[in-house]
Amino acid sequence: MNMSKKKPDQEAKSVEETPASRAYCSDIPANASEKIVSFYTEDENAREQGGTIHYERREYLLDGELVGYRQFDHEGRLIIETPMKDMRKHGTEYTWYWYAPDCLSLSEPYENGKVHGTARQWTIGGELMGSYTLEHGTGYDVWRIQDEEDGLIYVSEIHALQDGKLHGFQYWLNRDQKTIVGERHWNEGFLHGIERHWTDDGQMADGYPKFYIDDREVPKNLYMEEQRRDESLPRYDKKDDINARHFPESLLARPVALEYSKKLNS
Known about the structure:
Elements: H1 8-15, H2 20-23, E1 33-38, E2 41-42, H3 46-49, E3 53-54, E4 56-62, E5 65-72, E6 78-85, E7 88-89, E8 91-97, E9 100-111, E10 114-115, E11 117-122, E12 128-135, E13 138-146, E14 153-162, E15 165-173, E16 180-187, E17 190-191, E18 193-197, E19 210-213, E20 216-218, H4 220-227, H5 249-252, H6 256-264
């Protein structure tokens, strides 16, 4: 079928197939027994001022095996649900907005402890905001946020993964999608490369760049010397101390369903 020839009503139906309200389908068996293993605690004024929160945690057992756990907020509302198999995440993990627990934020499929399949993220209004696909823990985890003032949706984080571990560059993006707040380089789960962070006005933050070899911070001269022998270490170029970066459109693009939904409502 030529998708470009769909009629508007057909396209509108496809938009409705994955709203957050219909996405939840638990992978924790309904007949599993429930056990509370820790209670909700929080620092004073934690929800208002960003302190530490520990959600109530309940484990689910079936035939003596842990098949999942759920985490609940101070009012007993579900915030995170994680299915398990052989003590590893297995199935779709769901996360709700902590400040709006009736609104689903993320669904992320796992297989044997690694993200495998397409993860989806929704706005607080229930529209599909973005998605990313990993194969057995390998690919790009692309996180989006929506500006509270003007509703703009943009990519805020990109994490390169290999076999379930951070591997390659990790970025935090500004809303212009052309400059970044920070970046790090990883190798098989270890900091191995250069870390940079910038201030709001685009100046290099104090103490950066930092240089790492096998998770250990080292002086710049030692890094430069080792980089000549270790091809997994990114080359230091002073031009990269400017926070402008170019990202493939395929990573930044918003889902077609959301674009069409916005068109329908305009």
